[in-house]
């Protein structure tokens, strides 16, 4: 960081002062971080963006400055000048980068007063989050917040550098647009000039980036805000930032390899070293071994299929599941992973039921290979030893087993595995590939795209060049050319090779049950564009907030978003969302629905 341009307020960054400048006269400016009155001497830690510097006010040397310092309080804004001196032996602070020096203040100017902040800025003590958001500008003054945003800045800078080097163009796409189907509800904006019509805020720039490829731009990226009107459970935000990318004339391999390298650079910006290539596993394998398409492999404890071990079991629960087309699967909690006393096993059984399983079978493997388990008496020795072999289990290990429909077993075991896992160490990144194209929506009795409807499908037995004619088969058997990248059990990026032929796109809309007229009305512009020579193309989007939160070691994306919203979508700082007056609504041709009247105009 270059020094600031010297002016009447400062000539030096406080946090950058080092012993090499001892003897110089300096001026620094910032906030009073802490003030200590040592009966006579007054010490102030001055804080600017670069860190802290200790100021010393000596009554004999600078009586005026000392008198002024008596009135200073935390968060007052000051400018102070004086000579940089070496701290006396024994008063050096090894925890502070500026801990060997201090500024002997000759003159100080108070630039702004500050009320007593509602929480201390000088420590990272837990503060109620709504209060933090209400006074976000104070919250952001805290060191760990500044660090998170510096890290976010470094990640974004690395994105721009890396992608520029690789020939990507940074291009912008509209915020006022039409709905893009990423599977969430749209935020809508009424049109004043066309009363009754609405814009949607983009859920992603998906269709525009495809149009950039059709336009021949070849490589596009954008660090872009996206909007999804979802319930904010699971650490979501209504507006969030993606690193969005698209490339032409590529297959999966090209995108994945590029992203591997990019991720290595981005993680390096966050101090995390990544070994390439990242592992890849298929969706089916992820569901089997981890019970989720967002596996976290750090805890180990892989799920295994126990169908063969219990194939001829007479135990009603296992026989019933296997006979009914279901599965028996389980995993092993190694001895020493942490106690699983009976009470905990009962809780896990409750949790399994809550997740939709009929029950949970637990067993502790004994020295002689027998099982201590409520169901042991129903199982033969052979069954128990075959199951233990499949789970690579030995004495002292606890086995957790679910017999149910495959998706239920996957979901339940996937969750239980994480529930019993010890706190993970380090990071785990991998690709999940070879997804099904659709998933069945039982409530609506139709197929939904697992990724989105512009993802290229692969018909059974056909391969990458699936044509419309290949897609007369059962949509439930189609695979897609989608890929996700997962970090620590969270999806941090997802994308696909896209459809570049209008007739294939229409087949996918058909399979989704989208009537031709509706497809035309909503996506006619894309279908048109696909008729004018669309190159094979594909891309990906990364959740930048999530990536930065993981790198910063924060458990919520709100910690790396400057002005986030609460779980109810509110911003305690500005008071948004807020009522508008009736005149504004009239201009927009919008009437408030019953229950939430617009505020009358003054
Ligand atoms: N548009 C997709 C999303 O927002 C990402 C992609 O397919 O590139 O999830």
From TrEMBL:
Keywords: Aminoacyl-tRNA synthetase, ATP-binding, Cytoplasm, Ligase, Nucleotide-binding, Protein biosynthesis
HAMAP family tied to this protein: Asp_tRNA_synth_type1 (MF_00044)
Species: uncultured Solirubrobacterales bacterium
SUPFAM superfamilies, per database record: Class II aaRS and biotin synthetases, GAD domain-like, Nucleic acid-binding proteins
Ranges of residues in domain Aminoacyl-transfer RNA synthetases class-II family profile: 149-564
InterPro entries: Aa-tRNA-synt_II, aa-tRNA-synth_II, aa-tRNA-synth_II/BPL/LPL, Asp-tRNA-ligase_1, Asp-tRNA-ligase_1_N, Asp/Asn-tRNA-synth_IIb, AspRS_core, GAD-like_sf
Subunit relationships: Homodimer.
Annotated protein name in UniProt: Aspartate--tRNA(Asp/Asn) ligase
């Amino acid at each position: 960081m270059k020094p600031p341009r010297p002016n009447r307020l400062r000539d030096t960054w406080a946090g950058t002062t080092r012993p090499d400048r001892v003897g110089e006269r300096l001026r620094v400016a910032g906030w009073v971080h802490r003030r200590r009155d040592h009966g006579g001497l007054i010490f102030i830690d001055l804080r600017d963006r670069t860190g802290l510097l200790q100021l010393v006010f000596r009554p004999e040397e600078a009586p005026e400055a000392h008198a002024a310092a008596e009135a200073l309080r935390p968060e007052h804004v000051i400018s102070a000048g004086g000579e940089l001196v070496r701290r006396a032996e024994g008063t050096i602070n090894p925890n502070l980068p500026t801990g060997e020096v201090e500024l002997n203040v000759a003159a100080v100017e108070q630039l702004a007063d500050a009320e007593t902040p509602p929480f201390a800025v000088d420590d990272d003590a837990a503060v109620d989050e709504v209060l933090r958001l209400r006074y976000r500008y104070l919250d952001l003054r805290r060191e760990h917040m500044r660090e998170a945003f510096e890290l976010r800045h470094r990640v974004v800078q690395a994105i721009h550098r890396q992608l520029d080097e690789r020939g990507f163009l940074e291009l912008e796409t509209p915020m006022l647009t039409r709905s893009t189907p990423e599977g969430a509800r749209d935020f809508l904006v009424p049109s004043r000039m066309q009363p009754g019509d609405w814009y949607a805020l983009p859920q992603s720039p998906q269709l525009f980036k495809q149009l950039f490829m059709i336009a021949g731009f070849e490589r596009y990226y954008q660090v872009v805000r996206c909007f999804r009107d979802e319930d904010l459970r699971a650490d979501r935000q209504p507006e969030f930032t993606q690193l969005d990318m698209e490339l032409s004339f590529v297959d999966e391999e090209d995108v994945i390899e590029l992203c591997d390298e990019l991720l290595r650079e981005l993680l390096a910006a966050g101090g995390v070293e990544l070994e390439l290539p990242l592992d890849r596993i298929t969706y089916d394998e992820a569901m089997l071994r981890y019970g989720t398409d967002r596996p976290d492999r750090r805890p180990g404890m892989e799920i295994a299929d126990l169908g063969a071990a219990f194939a001829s079991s007479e135990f009603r629960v296992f026989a019933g599941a296997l006979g009914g087309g279901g599965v028996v699967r389980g995993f092993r909690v190694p001895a020493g992973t942490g106690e699983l006393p009976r009470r905990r096993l009962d809780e896990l059984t409750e949790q399994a039921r809550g997740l939709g399983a009929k029950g949970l079978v637990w067993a502790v493997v004994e020295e002689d290979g027998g099982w201590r388990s409520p169901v042991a008496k129903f199982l033969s020795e052979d069954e128990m030893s075959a199951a233990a072999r499949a789970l690579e289990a030995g004495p002292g290990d606890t086995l957790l087993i679910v017999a149910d429909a495959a998706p239920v077993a996957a979901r339940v075991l996937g969750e239980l595995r994480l529930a019993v896992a010890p706190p993970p160490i380090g990071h785990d990144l991998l690709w999940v590939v070879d997804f099904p194209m659709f998933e069945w929506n039982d409530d609506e009795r139709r197929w939904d795209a697992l990724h989105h409807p512009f993802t290229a499908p692969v018909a059974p037995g056909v391969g990458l060049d699936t044509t419309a004619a290949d897609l007369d088969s059962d949509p439930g058997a189609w695979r897609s050319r989608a890929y996700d990248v997962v970090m620590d059990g969270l999806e941090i990026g997802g994308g696909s090779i896209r459809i570049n032929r209008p007739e294939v796109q229409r087949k996918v809309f058909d399979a989704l049950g989208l009537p031709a007229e509706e497809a035309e009305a909503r996506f006619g512009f894309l279908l048109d564009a696909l008729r004018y020579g669309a190159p094979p193309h594909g891309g990906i989007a990364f959740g930048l907030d999530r990536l930065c939160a993981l790198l910063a070691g924060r458990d919520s994306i709100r910690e790396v978003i400057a002005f986030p919203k609460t779980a109810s979508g509110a911003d305690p700082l500005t008071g948004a969302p807020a009522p508008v007056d009736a005149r504004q609504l009239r201009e927009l041709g919008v009437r408030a629905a019953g229950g939430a009247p617009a505020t009358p105009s003054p």
